[in-house]
Amino acid sequence: MSTVEIQGVRVGYGGVPVLQGLDLTVPTGTTTAVLGASGGGKTTLLRIIAGFLAPEAGTIHIGGRLVCGHGRSVPPERRGVGYVRQDGGLFPHLDVGGNITFGMPRAARRRRERVGELLELVGLPEGTAAKRPDQLSGGQQQRVALARALALSPQVVLLDEPFSSLDTALRASTRDAVATALAETGATTILVTHDQQEALSFADQVAIMRDGRFSQVGTPREIYESPVDVREAAFLGDVVRLPGRPTHEGVSCALGIVRSPGGSTPFASYDAVDLVVRPEDLTLADAPGCAHGTVLTTRYHGAHALVRVALTDGPEVSVRVAGRSVPHPGEIVPVRVDGPVLTYPSA
After folding, report:
1. pTM, whole model, 2 decimals?
2. Which CATH number does the domain housing residue 310 bear?
3. Considering the chain, what is the average pLDDT of its residues?
4. How many alpha carbons lie under 13 Å from residue 112 in its C-beta half-sphere?
5. Strand order in the sheet with 332-337
6. Nearest Cα to 98, choosing from 122, 133, 67?
7. Is the distance from CB of 55 to CB of 10 less than 8 angstroms?
8. Tens-digit pLDDT profile for residues 42-66
């Protein structure tokens, strides 16, 4: 068992609080992404789990064993944790094989076998072992860094924004290779990232860090479809935010009457609400009582396009449409809701 349990973890620097009582459970063999803005304390949390930094309060258990808290602190090398830094952190004076086996027992035959196993696991050819880190691409270096982290069969693997320095295409392929390798080992994994799409696509569970606390923890689908507030909804992706007035039919807003808004807040209990809908849940299709507006701009992204529309009797809204059916600026188009809607009490 390699469940990670974090309870009441607090830490600050120079009297300024950074982490303010974090609680999180990462089940055995799963991946949790800690998502938040840069500088929000995500790396600090990883360093505490790894044993490089001591918290001011709180406890951490790994596989049911207390590794931090109540006056106890297990050294990093005895925690069963592998750590992959943002830059990989490979030793430039060692070849790939030397990097992977650094810290392993010196039995030469077993070291060679282990290098071959790990290179295969992370999707690199066996000949890579003799290369220096500066002869590898950024994606290859990150795969080697993962192989090194897995060399001692850790219970837990910590990933500190390992894909952020890679270009878009390389980031996707490297992320897929890392996810496959981690799944094969069954390691419990914690990824910290400020990339929303990376967190949603990579993890089984997402923990959103805000102001030193977790504002919401859940599956990627739960946090994307039911964010706890407007601020979190906007952090997770593009949103259209409109003021609304509850009526006996639904919510009246610039898009007409929205009859079945989702979300956990009972909209009928408030005089005014904020209605939140994502651009992909609007459509440029006519329907009785729908709104109309003028196309202002279009941003073409290949498979889809983002269309900015000034509603005739309301504000500007963004609508995501298929890339093959993009209207032209100046066109008059219908706009209606064609997907889930969230409502929150007006601030």
Report:
1. 0.89
2. 2.40.50.140
3. 90
4. 4
5. 282-283, 332-337, 291-300, 304-311, 316-322
6. 133
7. yes
8. 999 999 999 999 999 999 999 999 9
